[in-house]
Design brief:
By secondary structure, this protein is mainly β. It folds into 2 domains: 91 residues, Jelly Rolls, CATH 2.60.120; 101 residues, Jelly Rolls. The chain contains 1 helix and 22 strands. The protein is globular and about 55 Å long.
C-alpha cells in the first residue's frame, strides 16, 4: 500500500479500462478506500461492479443508468446525475450504462459498513434529497450518509471563507472540490489548491480550508470514524508557532 504522505506528493496509481477510460486509486488503507473512474462511451459504454464490500458510488460529472441485481435475484434500476450518490451493497451485481459521452465517478469504501445502516440502500442521495444543516463556521452541509464507519457529506464554503487551523484526533478525511477551487493551509506554507482528484488528510494533520474567491465552493467530504470530540483547534502565536 502507498502511505498517505506519498499519496499527497505523487500522482494517483492508475490503470487503463479501455482506450481512453481509466481507473485511479486515490487512497487504499484499511479504514478508507477512494478511487476515481473516467469513463467514455466510445470505449466503455457500460461497466459491471461486483464488490465484496459495501461501496458508495458518487457521480462527479455526467449521467448514467444503474441496474442492480441482489443475491435473491431481485432487480432495481435508477438514473444518476451529477453530484448524486448511491450505495452498491456487498455482493450485488451492478451494471452501469453511460448516458453522456463521458462520466467521472468516485468509489468510496469505509471500514465495516454495517448492513443495518444501509437499509433501503438503493436510494440515490444528493443535496436535493437530504436536509442541509449549518456546520462549523457557517459551512452549509448536506449529510449524504452517516454511520459508525464514518460519514459522507457535501459541504458549501461561502465566498471569502477562512477557518481556524485544526486537526482531527482520530479520523482520516478526504476532500474533493466539485465546484470552484478550495485551498488548504497547514500554517507552515502558502495555502495550496486542493488537487483535482482530491486530497487525503491524515488524523492529527493540521488543516484549514480557505475559499478566497467571490463564489461559493462545493466540496465532497468523506471522513472515517471519529471520537465525539475529534476536532481539535490549534491556536497560533503572533510569531506563527503552533501551541
Amino acid at each position: 500500500m502507498v502511505n498517505i504522505t506519498e499519496q499527497n506528493t505523487l500522482d494517483p496509481m492508475n490503470y487503463s479500462l479501455g482506450e481512453s477510460s481509466k481507473h485511479f486509486i486515490i487512497h487504499q488503507q484499511d479504514d478508507l478506500f477512494i478511487a476515481h473512474e473516467y469513463l467514455f462511451q466510445t470505449d466503455i459504454p457500460s461497466r459491471f461492479y461486483h464488490h465484496q464490500a459495501d461501496t458508495f458510488l458518487f457521480i462527479i460529472r455526467g449521467e448514467l443508468y444503474l441496474q442492480q441485481c441482489t443475491q435473491q435475484n431481485s432487480e432495481q434500476e435508477t438514473a444518476l446525475k451529477q453530484h448524486q450518490g448511491i450505495w452498491l451493497t456487498a455482493q450485488t451485481i451492478n451494471s452501469i450504462t453511460l448516458l453522456t459521452p463521458a462520466v467521472e465517478l468516485c468509489l468510496i469504501r469505509l471500514k465495516n459498513t454495517g448492513q443495518a445502516e444501509l437499509n433501503n440502500s438503493f436510494k440515490k442521495v444528493s443535496s436535493g434529497t437530504v436536509e442541509s444543516i449549518s456546520g462549523r463556521s457557517h459551512i452549509k452541509t448536506w449529510p449524504l450518509w452517516h454511520g459508525e464507519a464514518g460519514q459522507i457529506a457535501l459541504e458549501l464554503y461561502p465566498p471569502q471563507f477562512k477557518e481556524t487551523l485544526y486537526y482531527q484526533k482520530t479520523a482520516t478525511q478526504y476532500l474533493l472540490p466539485l465546484t470552484g477551487i478550495a485551498f488548504i493551509s497547514n500554517d507552515k506554507k502558502v495555502p495550496k489548491a486542493c488537487p483535482r482528484y482530491g486530497k487525503i488528510i491524515a488524523h492529527k494533520e493540521p488543516r484549514a480550508i480557505l475559499n478566497p474567491s467571490n463564489e461559493s465552493v462545493t466540496v465532497l467530504s468523506v471522513m472515517t470514524t471519529k471520537n465525539t470530540k475529534g476536532r481539535i483547534l490549534l491556536l497560533t502565536k503572533p510569531e506563527g508557532r503552533t501551541l
